[in-house]
User: Which sequence fits this backbone?
């Protein structure tokens, strides 16, 4: 099984399934679960065709993840042997040949701005607006050891390393493809890269600060629970006087989770789209084995 998302990788491995980040053929049948990114979906179909080597490629996915447009595009290139629709999803299959070589996912490559990204990773066309807003508002007083949770291909981390008081940055990213880009974007003795789930990574009370632009969906449907888990993880990782700085879409309900996890909260900056939030003094309830601070 091929899996580049660390939480899923770990889950399948714990079940005793052999997992890799780069599957190799040949195989008689290759199954593709459609990702959200159209470019990545096409790349996976091309990879599946190459691995199947004359066998069968099966593609399935939800309508909200673009299964219908992919089916139409595949049908333009090859004959579809069969398809089944049920609920909000669809599955189809075709005989593997050489029709999708032009869909192959390109290697990480530099943008005009110089940043190295790859189709299929978050914000592959350049820095997202939320991260740019966060960089503008970063407190210049951050110092010591910290982490960029969900650091992607390294945009925030490079700016963190430019702060004069920063001595070490842990970039934590669950998408192996994004982390591969970060490896090429960043070079600093004060940096450590971690392919890990940011909600479970690291030792409690080990960091002076955490900076993050947390994801808020695992599918196309927004889910604030993921960002809330990032907040709780930050509180767990921070020392008693540690600081969290984060950016979030204005509508996301993070303030209650912040209040439950930190003593001090303030909005540093923001506009109608984003809010830059700073929280300090994590509550002891987020540290294993300690009573809640009153």
Assistant:
């Amino acid at each position: 099984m091929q899996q580049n998302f660390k939480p899923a990788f770990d889950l399948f491995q714990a079940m005793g399934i052999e997992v890799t980040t780069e599957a190799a053929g040949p195989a008689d049948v290759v199954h593709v679960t459609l990702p959200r990114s159209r470019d990545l979906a096409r790349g996976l179909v091309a990879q599946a065709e190459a691995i199947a080597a004359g066998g069968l490629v099966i593609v399935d996915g939800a309508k909200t993840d673009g299964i219908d447009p992919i089916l139409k595009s595949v049908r333009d290139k090859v004959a579809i042997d069969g398809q089944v629709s049920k609920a909000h999803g669809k599955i189809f299959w075709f005989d593997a040949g050489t029709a999708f070589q032009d869909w192959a996912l390109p290697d990480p490559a530099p943008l005009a701005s110089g940043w190295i990204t790859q189709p299929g990773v978050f914000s592959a066309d350049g820095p997202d607006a939320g991260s740019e807003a966060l960089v503008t508002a970063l407190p210049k007083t951050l110092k010591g050891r910290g982490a960029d949770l969900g650091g992607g291909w390294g945009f925030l981390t490079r700016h963190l390393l430019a702060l004069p008081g920063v001595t070490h940055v842990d970039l934590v990213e669950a998408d192996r493809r994004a982390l591969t880009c970060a490896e090429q974007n960043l070079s600093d003795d004060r940096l450590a890269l971690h392919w890990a789930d940011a909600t479970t990574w690291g030792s409690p009370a080990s960091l002076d600060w955490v900076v993050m632009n947390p994801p808020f969906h695992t599918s196309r449907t927004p889910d604030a629970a993921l960002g809330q888990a990032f907040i709780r993880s930050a509180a767990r990782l921070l020392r008693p006087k540690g600081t969290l700085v984060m950016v979030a879409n204005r509508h996301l309900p993070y303030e209650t989770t912040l209040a439950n996890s930190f003593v001090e909260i303030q909005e540093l900056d923001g506009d109608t789209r984003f809010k830059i939030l700073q929280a300090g003094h994590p509550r002891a309830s987020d540290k294993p084995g300690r009573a809640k601070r009153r």
Observations:
- The helical segments are 6-14, 38-52, 67-75, 129-137, 155-161, 176-185, 224-237, 255-261.
- The radius of gyration is 21 Å.
